[in-house]
Amino acid sequence: MNNRKTYFLSALLLTISVIVLLFTGSPLLTTSLTSDGSVPLGTFITWAGMISLPLTIYWGIKELRKPSSKLNRVLSELLKIIILLGILWVPISYLLAGNLSFTFSEKETFQGGQAAMRWFWRLSYGIGISAVLIVTTFWISLLFKKRKNTTH
Question: How is the chain split into domains, by residue range?
Fold first, then answer.
């Protein structure tokens, strides 16, 4: 098995595992990594998913790694931005929340407050939704490409 397939299968397995853990509400997510309970394992499990989802798409679709059309170049660049945001998810989220459990309160200040919480959720959902939109756009473009090829 070549490296690309290994990377793809590893990222896919990690993505599926994280999705299952998140949707089942696994107790692993709330397992504390510190004695004071301030750092849940779920933070790092979710972080792995934030990185592995777009990487699964990147390693799974050659045209998004080495694009040959203008649309695919745009999708490829957007995917790379999503991968970068996935990598930076914990540092950005920490800056927003002020803690690694990503809890927010009714504070008047930005960090840890309601405005920061809205940005946290936009970032968190944005990574996943954007990755899915990129792959969906790619698949739709394939349908139009096939239709164009069959009509000529």
Answer: 3-151
pLDDT digits (tens, 9 = 90+) for 118-133: 999 999 999 999 999 9
Closest by CA to 96, choosing from 83, 82, 109, is 109
Give the percent of the chain with pLDDT over 70. Answer: 96
Sign of CA dihedral 81, 69, 61, 147: positive
Q: Which residue's entry shows tokens 């008047």?
A: 108
Task: State whether residue 32 is helix, strand or coil.
Answer: strand
CA 23 from centre of chain: 15
Range list of β-strands (E), 39-80: none
Judging by beta carbons within 10 Å of its beta carbon (0-12, 13-18, 19+), is residue 151 exposed, middle or buried? exposed
149, pLDDT greater than 70: no
Q: What is the pTM of this model?
A: 0.91
The pair of three-digit structure tokens given for residue 131, joined into one six-digit string: 């990755």
